[in-house]
Design a protein that fits this description.
By secondary structure, the protein is an alpha/beta fold. The chain folds into two domains: 136 residues, Aspartate Aminotransferase, domain 1 (Alpha-Beta Complex); 248 residues, Type I PLP-dependent aspartate aminotransferase-like (Major domain) (Aspartate Aminotransferase, domain 2). The chain is built from 15 helices and 14 strands. Strands 4-10-9-8-7-5-6 form a seven-stranded mixed sheet, with helices on both faces. Helix 3 packs parallel to helix 11, helix 7 runs parallel beside helix 8 and helix 14 packs across helix 15. The longest helix has 20 residues. The radius of gyration is 21 Å and the shape is globular. The two termini are 28 Å apart. 49% of the residues are buried. Bound molecules: pyridoxal-5'-phosphate. Pyridoxal-5'-phosphate binds next to helix 4.
Length: 422
Amino acid sequence: MSKSEKLYEKAKELMPAGVSSPVRAFEPYPRYIESAKGSRMRDVDGKEYVDYCMAFGPLILGHSPPNVVTVVKKMLEKGSVFGAPTEQEIVLAEKIRSHYPAAEMLRLVNTGTEATMHALRLARGFTGRKKVVKVEGAYHGAHDAMLVKAGSGALTHSAPNSLGVLEDVAKHTMLVPYNNSRALRNALKGEHGDVAAMIIEPVLGNVGPILPEEGYLQEVREITLDEDVLLILDEVITGFRLGLGGAQEMFGIKPDLLTLGKIVGGGFPIGVFGGRREIMEKISPLGGVYQAGTFSGNPISVSAGLETIRTMEKKGYASLERRSRNLREGLEDVLERSSLGYQVSGIGSMFQIFFTNAKMRNWDDIRTSDTARFMQMFRRLLDEGVYVPPSQFETNFLSTAHSDADVEFTIAAYEGAIRGLS
Ligand SMILES: Cc1ncc(COP(=O)(O)O)c(C=O)c1O
């Protein structure tokens, strides 16, 4: 029995499925991790993997980048949390606003879940309306209003609509299909001004990356303006991932509110919500919308995030994205040589492969993919020394620590894993 198996036996007595977050669980047992550096992760049995899970997105510089470690160590000497504001928070807020001008004001919180929860509460508080719109298959964190046809672990483990969410809450969440602006217009037309906000992942990242069709996001912006509905761009994944200015810069969209997380914390917990000044001034103690958090804006996450953003400002995204393109092209070649129906989807340093012939436009398409075949491939990839998120419905991420040699190794590993898949 491997050490991971032994740990799993013990862990599942203590924690549901032996994990602290559901999408880390997989059969027959998760690999318990001992350490990670750069593009590599090592489990407790000494097996090394080239990692494309990258903690589900935050680690754009790879695991434990030396400059971030140095900054964090220095900060730790001074304190880990103060419960009072710091100058560094202002520096980070200014830095974020310089890349996301839509964030005229912002608040730092601890997770992406908190960021979207507060952004939605704020949208309701500001407009005095109840309903919100979300996209089918999008994931915005594990809070009640958003656990309706949600992606990520919720979809992987067949709970896109969670038990325990009151019908009275869920009934105010309207669903629309991604990449279908006509459906959005029709849905809003019927609501006669009762909708506070639409929240959207500009690139669906929690079902694998599903890209917006030409003009779709611009139409979403136009429709929400026409119908007087606030637009919340959830860039928890895409922020500082699709370039410094995220998807809003890439696609030229200005939202009313936006959320960030993951990369902004440089490997430590963080979330950000921000937007138009007049809306943000509704937040307590200026206004009547409450938000608070003991660890919000803590100096460890703030200093790690600042160092990470500064590093990406210096490095740029060109070689990260070139390697990502090379990897996707290599995977296309491998899959083309197999007899399997497939799609390789990706943008920037995000990618996923789907076993289906359907073109990936929305939830109905992604549901056609063969998840059993995906999990078969996933297990073989582990044997080959490649760790990807244990779900068809997640995105794989490259970091600046992934080398050309890693990419070559990975293409060969996929080739080995895909060979003989039934
Ligand atoms: C788009 C998006 N929003 C919100 C969240 C929730 O973030 P967190 O897991 O930090 O609570 C996630 C998490 O994956 C996400 O991908």
